[in-house]
Design a protein that fits this description.
This protein has 532 residues and is α/β, with parallel strands linked by helices. Helix content is 41%, strand content 18%. It contains 19 helices and 17 strands.
Length: 532
């Protein structure tokens, strides 16, 4: 074994300062997560319970195997928008009857579970994860359909939800709908397009148009039960495959459906006997500085997340601001690319491209650990070919077909974010630590660039330059970019799959790798043209 040495000193003032800063960010994160957990607030939660109904997360807990993990995805969706944090939907990956599944659950305490634009994006992301990783999809449905005031942002793209259900089924990936309450208008197509449908007696209401709409459209008088009740769909229309006595019975039936799938993964299950890291995961709290301008060694992170802290580094003496190498995580082989000193030079870019090709040759997933300010700029570097070398790395990432997982630990700026497999490059999963920041460039750099351009413009026109106005504009721009770089802001827009506690990184990565290995892992054998 090649056990990584550690130079981290948990007794040092620097470690204590870093840990304190990270704990402060985690406390802020917990406060934001609490908003999602609160749903529509006490009033609507109590109203929901008074009707004898379970909450969305209670339904999920009942569905999951006892004591099994649930990897919740995008819990901060809609953060910073006009809509409630969490977007009235809970999504994640959990084990049901021994099978890993993607699970979604409408939160009916938030505007009756109606879908807003962020609900749609979150649901589409869950569908994408199910399709790419070949995971059965279970939808726990109770929704009044689209949030009508925001229909202009939902109706056109919303059809993709139903498209996804049919594509999953066509790909042989099972889909299950469990209807606990309303599933109306467009939402009726969720049970209509699922492979298996369960409806709860006297609770489920599935129809394209409710009694008021039917009255307006046709003049026909009708009631909820005869128009779209569970018993009608079980006895008359045939839309319901299973007729549940109550919510608990519906969950029981869903578990039996998954059991009878006899679902088999394409790859291996996690190795439960894989050796734990040699170093304490608690120490991950003290590695990343509060000031991201201060560099840190990503090997200290790698040593605390991979099996046995065993890491075989690739080209350790070349392109030293990017660490690359081979390890295993919960028994799964991984190739790791981790930014060491922030900046990517030509050597790092070429090293990364070669390493990514090797991982594809061997069909090994890649893990990207971000802390980069981007590719190096300056006359010497431009003349040395930084553009074509950076393009080589981005080419390799873009055309790589092994699964990628990205974790933003520190900075993730500029094209470096792309080269390290940011969201636009379709990683299977992307998570951020509370310490992470991502933008086109750092706040001070961006404000400074705007200031220089404004000065040059004034000089070209022969006009005096207002220094006071410049200082005010720079401060305003820095504040804006800083706010827009923070993890909660980015997570709220679903640019990641969640902001996680650094101490949970190994567990989260293990769950992701397990999900990934439900589908075949196969690398690319060809790439676009590399500029040499």
């Amino acid at each position: 074994m090649t056990v990584l040495p550690s130079r981290l000193d948990p007794g040092s003032p620097e470690y204590a300062a870093h840990r304190t800063a990270m704990l402060g960010k985690l406390a802020d994160l917990d406060a934001e997560h609490a908003k999602a957990l609160a749903g529509g607030g006490p009033k609507y939660v109590e109203r929901h319970r008074a009707r004898g109904k379970l909450l969305a997360r209670e339904r999920i807990e009942l569905l999951l195997d006892p004591d099994s993990p649930f990897l919740e995805l995008s819990p901060l969706a809609a953060w910073g928008s006009d809509y409630p944090v969490g977007a009235a939907l809970v999504t994640g990956i959990g084990v049901v009857a021994g099978t890993e599944c993607v699970i979604t659950a409408n939160d009916p305490t938030v505007r009756g579970g109606a879908s807003n634009p962020w609900t749609l994006r979150k649901a589409l992301r869950a569908n994408e994860i199910a399709l790419r990783n070949r995971l059965p999809l279970i939808n726990l449905v109770e929704s009044g359909g689209a949030d009508l005031p925001s229909q202009k942002e939902i109706f056109i793209p919303g059809g993709a939800l139903f498209r996804d259900l049919t594509r999953l089924s066509a790909a042989g990936i099972p889909t299950v709908a469990v209807v606990f309450g309303n599933s109306t208008a467009g939402g009726a197509y969720v049970p209509g397009m699922s492979d298996h449908t369960v409806m709860v007696k006297e609770r489920a209401k599935v129809f394209l148009g409710g009694p008021p709409l039917v009255k307006m459209a046709t003049g026909e008088e009708s009631d909820d039960e005869s128009l779209g009740g569970a018993e009608m769909h079980a006895r008359t229309s045939g839309l319901a495959d299973f007729f549940a006595a109550d919510e608990q019975d519906a969950v029981r039936l869903a578990r039996r459906i998954v059991h009878r799938l006899h679902w088999r993964r394409a790859g291996a299950a996690p190795d439960l006997g894989a050796p734990a890291p040699k170093y304490d995961e608690e120490e991950l709290l003290g590695i990343v500085p509060g000031d991201l301008k201060v560099p840190f060694d990503p090997r200290e992170v790698i040593a605390r997340i991979v099996d046995g802290s065993d890491f075989d580094e690739f080209k350790p003496l070349y392109g030293t601001s990017l660490a690359t190498g081979w390890a295993s995580l919960h028994g799964y082989p991984v190739g790791i690319l981790a930014n060491a000193q922030g900046v990517l030079f030509s050597a790092e870019s070429q090293k990364a491209a070669q390493f990514i090709q090797l991982a594809n040759q061997r069909d090994i997933p890649l893990l990207f650990l971000h802390n980069t300010t981007g590719y190096m700029v300056g006359r010497d570097y431009e003349q040395g070919g930084i553009i074509k070398h950076g393009a080589m790395m981005i080419n390799a990432v873009a055309n790589s077909t092994v699964p990628h997982i990205s974790v933003l630990m520190g900075s993730s700026y500029g094209a470096g974010h792309y080269g390290m497999c940011g969201r636009a490059y379709d990683p299977r999963f992307l998570f951020a630590w509370p310490s992470a920041k991502s933008a086109v460039m750092g706040p001070q750099q961006l404000a400074g660039v705007l200031s220089i351009v404004a000065r040059q413009s004034a000089a070209a026109k022969g006009q005096p330059y207002d220094e006071d106005a410049d200082a005010a504009i720079r401060a305003m721009v820095e504040q804006q970019i800083e706010a827009e770089s923070l993890p909660a802001f980015l997570s709220g827009r679903l640019y990641d799959d969640g902001v996680i506690d650094p101490r949970d990184t190994r567990t989260v990565l293990g769950l992701c790798l397990s999900a990934i290995h439900h589908a075949p892992v196969q690398g690319a054998r060809s790439y676009g043209v590399f500029r040499m």
